[in-house]
Amino acid sequence: MLNNSNNYIQVGGGITAILFGILQGVDWLFSKYEIDNFYFNIILITLLIGLISSLIIFLAKKNKIKKISLIKSKKKILFITIIILLLLFVFVFFFKKINNNDNLVNEKIPEIISLFDNGNINEVFLKTKSLLIDYPDNQIIKNYYKKSKKSFSLKTDYDGIEVSIKYGGDSIYNYLGKTPLDSFSAPNSWNTHVLKFKYNDSTYTESYDWLKKHNYFFPSKSIKVPKNHEFFLGTNISLMWFLGVEFKDTQLLPFSISKNEVSNSEYQKFISDGGYDNPKYWDFPFQIDDKIYDFNSTIKQFTDRYGKPGPSNWSYGKYPSGLGEHPVTGISWFEARAFANYSNMSLPNVYQWLYASGVSSFVVNTDVVNNSNFNSTQTRETSNVNGSFNELNNIAGNVKEWGSNPNGLNNEKFSLLGGSYLEYSYTFNNYYSISPLNRSIGNGMRLAKTLSNKPSNLDDKVVPEFKRDVTKIIDVSDEVFDVYKSQFEYEDIPLNSNTINLENFAEGYNAQKFEMKTTYESEERLFGYIVYSNKIKDKYDPIIVFPGAGSIVSDNDSWMPKNLLDEYKYLIDEGYAIIHPIYHNTYSRNKTYNTFTPDESENYKNTIIKIGQDYKRSLDYIESRTDFNFNNLSYFGYSWGSTTSNYLLAIDDRIKSAFICAGGLMMQKSKKEIEAHYYVRRIKTPIFHISGKLDGIFGPEDAFIPWKKLIGTASKDLKTIEYDEYGHGIPKDTIIKYHSNWIKIYSNK
Fold it and tell me: Whole-model pTM above 0.70?
């Protein structure tokens, strides 16, 4: 019986081995000659059926049974079952192998190649990493895994910290180990991974940022995070950036920053506790330029409307009724600093504020800006979550927040960050500084705390300031300037423009979209929007508009027609047509330069030239319209729109008059052939220019006064107003007061 059983095993094992060998050979032939796997499956099924049938016939003859029966003994049944299972195993193995290979070749690998070619590096990394478990020897998969990954180092100031990683596009964390760690791999892309740290019974997460280089500092165990503060790990950052200001190689210690701006009610407690009477909270004596300020004489300047200690907009030592939970405003740097000392905290330094607000990135978070309190008539409550970032409420807009850092050689200015409700959204990502004695409405604060026992010099570090007196630079000859100006010229070809009416616009008004080919090599089209009243029977006087710097960081312009009506209704109702081209490097057009600040790169030069050509071509289009009084064409620009007019009004003399606000000349160098001060000298256009003496972006000494000295416009055609109480935000009613009247002076009506 046992011998018979052994025979069955031998026969079954032999059959299985022969079958396995045959299939291995067939598999090799099919792979070598790329034969369709459909035929392999037919062979596989045929062999399986044939071998099982042969085995049954063999067993029946062996037992001299005429009628096929497999039920003679339990042992025979067991042996037969095992043999059939072995055959089934061989079948399943090869079926799965050949069809998995088929799926790999026909679906997985082409998908990986397509994802890689389209820049989906994270998905390529995740898919190849997973496939290598089953196909460790596949060279194509190994190659794309290698191309999609990058090795990262990790440094921490403490050992024994548990580290996990979540790859971009994945939903789970994978445990890496405890620090110190060797290098680890992650996708080679921007959105590559998030690290999670477990330290001192707390969990911290850090998204990858190429500027951080994975070098982290953890809080000292003896220092607690204040209530209602958001915590940030310290790190080494290779570059931090404001428009026009770069901070290189910064070591940022761990810190926290308050989720809310300081409210009126909180500041009231400081006053009630004798904060204005106690010198220990105040940074006096203090030197600004050559003057030394002491406590007793300086504190007398910090009074409310009626001479009581407190912010400039309070009355009799009380904040405005109903605004207890609104941010305190109308305070100097000294008052903000005193309150921080009273609270046993500090004002955030520029580096902390940049890091926490996200402004140190090169792309502004437009959701934050769009939901923030800019260009408004009133502050929001400090706890308002609209426009928050990193759990920091009102980080953009509401009030400008004093920082601890001086700006300038003699502590004559201090940092003021984030923009206020009185200003436009682009002030969020612009560095701003002003006298520490300034108590303008809109000046407020939030608090910070460094969470390390290690020393840091960032709080008092002077923000670098670039100064240049362009009025002392010798002008170029007219012949040389003509060469500079020729950069903006283009071939005289037909416009071939297309203009469509936008449906379902506001009642009583028309909106149009025009487009045409650019004058330079580009796959893009030059386009723009026009808004005018349909109640006007005569020809329209056209006004061409250039946007502010917010257009550089915005990627959408679909809202433009409605905005033009809201912003310029006072002109449209008088018979003006507002034309807003979407210039190169703005809104939905391709971006080639991420700031309005000049530099000496070819990139900046080419960006300005393309903008200039778009502008001139837009004038060509306006001139082609028979429903426009082209001879009455005027220009409007605010901020960047004002500074860009330094080029635009010089390269084309078809503008009859210009109205600009909050501008001037920027001091930063550019390539000589694109230096704005050469162009300003040759402008002849009548100009009305409104500026604020408190402007921290285009200040009077650095921007406006040099512009006024160099502008080529005749004095009889130049009107300037400088407001003592205004900063970069010029109130709209002030603009309305003068704008249309100025245009009418130079119109042919």
Answer: no
